[in-house]
């Protein structure tokens, strides 16, 4: 399985700050927003990752993440000239994906919860074994803002809607999707919505029509932030700060994950700490190095 992280978009909901900087570089507490989806992909053990970015942001992404070799991963980049919808990311990634299955993440979504990676790995195994699509739902108070899934009493999917005016449920489909390789062809046949975008909901609806869509609800004990608005951006940062201060452990620390996965050595991790040693982030990595002495 390969991973795609969609990090394009214009960030209009975070204006005026995103007039000058891509939102995915903004800090969620003590690290760039983009570290959080990247960290989950790495925790799943996926090493081939494609970032879909705007042309004007490519150099900054390359400066921040390079080609991933310093983390023991392979990072590639694909340009999205205009934000034409989430499903377009699958189309743009066709050459990168090849014959593989897909983990598709939105760059502004923050997740946290007990056994989250275990649940994601179950989705991955389901796709690799049986194909289809596997997505996640989360209860929200403002379903008009999201793609919504309607379920029956047995948890089977009845319908999907994109930003409905009269939502049939309060369960939003979050920005983490697992697809078999058929998603590429499905996405290429998606027609623009009334908003003029290629909706990811349309891809999911096609899987539903084929009887190949699974939805797992993330209940109590899980946190999900769509950090694309000022309020949710602030809430995500406060949440991460609270968890890290209480536990002494960092969320989304990509260097630590690379080391724990055995993708980089202790010496390589030590080298990565050098430009960071005056920061709390760098001191945290130094402590990890010391603990392995």
Describe it.
Strands 5-4-1-6-11-8-12 form a seven-stranded mixed beta sheet, with helices on both faces. Strands 2-3 form a two-stranded antiparallel ribbon. A two-stranded antiparallel ribbon has the order 7-13. The protein has eleven helices and 13 strands. It has two domains: 2-134 and 175-262, Spore Coat Polysaccharide Biosynthesis Protein SpsA, Chain A; 266-293, no CATH class. The two termini are 34 Å apart. Helix 3 (86-92) packs across helix 6 and helix 10 (266-273) runs antiparallel to helix 11 (280-291). It is 36% helix and 23% strand. Helix 2 links the parallel strand 4 (48-53) and strand 5 (74-79). It has 293 residues and is an alpha/beta fold.
Short description:
By secondary structure, the chain is of the alpha/beta class. About 35% of the residues lie in helices and about 25% in strands.
């Amino acid at each position: 399985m390969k991973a795609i992280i969609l990090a394009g978009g214009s960030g209009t909901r975070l204006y005026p700050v995103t007039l000058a900087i891509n939102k995915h570089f903004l800090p969620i507490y003590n690290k760039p927003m983009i570290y959080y989806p990247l960290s989950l992909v790495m925790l799943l053990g996926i090493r081939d990752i494609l970032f879909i970015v705007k042309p004007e942001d490519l150099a900054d992404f390359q400066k921040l993440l390079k080609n991933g070799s310093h983390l023991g991963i392979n990072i590639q980049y694909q340009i999205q000239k205009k934000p034409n919808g989430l499903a377009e990311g699958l189309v743009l990634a066709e050459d990168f994906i090849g014959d593989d299955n897909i983990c598709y993440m939105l760059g502004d979504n923050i997740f946290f919860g007990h056994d989250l990676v275990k649940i994601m790995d179950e989705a991955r195994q389901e796709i690799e074994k049986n194909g289809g699509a596997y997505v996640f739902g989360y209860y929200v108070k403002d379903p008009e803002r999201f793609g919504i899934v309607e379920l029956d009493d047995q948890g089977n999917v009845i319908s999907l809607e994109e930003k409905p005016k009269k939502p049939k449920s309060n369960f939003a489909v979050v920005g983490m999707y697992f697809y078999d390789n058929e998603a590429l062809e499905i996405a290429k046949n998606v027609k623009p919505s009334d908003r003029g975008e290629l909706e990811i909901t349309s891809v999911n609806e096609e899987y539903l029509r084929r009887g190949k869509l699974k939805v797992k609800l993330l209940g109590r004990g899980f946190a999900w932030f769509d950090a694309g608005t000022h309020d949710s951006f602030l809430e995500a940062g406060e949440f991460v700060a609270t968890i890290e201060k209480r536990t002494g452990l960092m969320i989304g620390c990509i260097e630590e994950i690379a080391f724990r996965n055995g993708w980089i050595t202790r010496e390589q991790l030590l080298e990565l700490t050098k430009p960071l040693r005056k920061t709390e982030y760098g001191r945290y990595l130094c402590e990890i190095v010391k603990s392995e002495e």
